Amino acid sequence: MKREIIITGDGSTTIQIADWNEQYHSIHGAIQEAYHVFIKHGVQHYNSFHCSSGTVLESKNITILEIGFGTGLNAFITLLEAQKLGLDIIYTGVEAYPVSDEEIDALNYTKSLKAENSDLLFNKLHNTTWEEPHQIHDSFTLTKQKKFFIEINDVETYNIIYFDAFGARVQPELWTEPIFEIMYKALKPKGVLVTYSAKGSVRRAMQAVGFIVERLPGPPGKREMLRATK
Question: What are the structural domains, with CATH classification, of the chain?
Answer without folding.
Answer: 30-229 (3.40.50.150)
